[in-house]
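Page 37, top half.
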Amino acid sequence: MTSAGGLTGLWVVAFLTLHVANFGETQNAAPNKVDVPFPPARPTAQNLAAICHQGQGRPRYPASFFPRSGSSHFRRRGDAINRLESWFQSCCSGQASEQSHQILCCAQQAWKQALSQFCVEEYSTMTAAYLCCRSQGDARWTCFDSELPNPDYSPTPGYTAPHVPEEPGFTYNTNTC
């Protein structure tokens, strides 16, 4: 005959075993979670220094960052961030004049062009496009410049960006500044 205390102890062990097993499953699923903070902030005089001098401390999203399936909308966001960071590098490295207003103008052009290309890519899929892509003109840029995850382009502590190939397709137009 089994005592009441022994039976209670058996139930406690069974409960803890099941609880720990569920906890383990939650932990194993976490690496597949993809997070791409989006959208990037509009370049301004206030965040330009961080854009130009702290770029290697902001995340990049190589193909290996994403799971093989089920994250295409995050992949497009990551591609837009990678493209923008590459183009920022061009603006900050001297392709634009050394004058800060020229560098800012270049960075703003890069921002608009990268997000425009993102919207084209969003509409080329069978999924719903990102909300801001539905707007046009200034309304689109205002939408993209709201609810920003990193408005100051602050670096991620302890992070160094992996090498991501330079993105072609951006030409700075000095005549629009």
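Page 37, bottom half:
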Amino acid sequence: MADDLDALLDEVETKFCRLQALGAGKRERGGGEAVAGERGRSAKILTKAVVDEEDIDDIIKDIIDESSFSQKTVKLRSKSGNPTSEGNSASIQAHGKSCCPVYIGGSSTPHGIGTNISQRTCDQLRCTACDFHVSHYNDYQWDKSCDYLFFRNNMPDLSKLRVKMIKKKGSRAYACQCSWRSIDELTDLRTDRQLRWVCGKHVE
């Protein structure tokens, strides 16, 4: 009886141990697959990061190459002694210059860009009150009977303006649609507070 019981216990123990061993094997295999999966994902991430870094390096290299090419192009253009380009740059610099201060004067005073050193009368005058170009006529002055309505209705028609223009050597008649002056000598516009004339900028 005792021998049969021992044999039965041995058989149960053997089967139980075998089932535990099989379960442990399955768990190990499952764990190995999980670890392998993690390793595979890590490898993919690392590979992607390396590819991204290579792409970034290529993009940076392309940008550097393009910028260096453009700099070389600019240097070559600046070194080229093309007189036409120099003339164009000079005209661009001259474009848009204004008189400071602004002068008006008689017919003997030369036109141009007026400065404190080069006192020239401005021939690009514009009125900020009526937004009209200021016309000027050499060796003429305005008749004393001129009024606002005369210039409002007749500017800039010279044939109609001649009715009230008087010939005078050395004088210069200025007018827009709201103001007019007869000038004999060089005059700084800042001294005439009533006039709203400004330099409309010169192109030379």
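Margin note: The beta strands are 103-104, 125-127, 132-133, 135-142, 165-175, 180-183, 187-188, 197-199.
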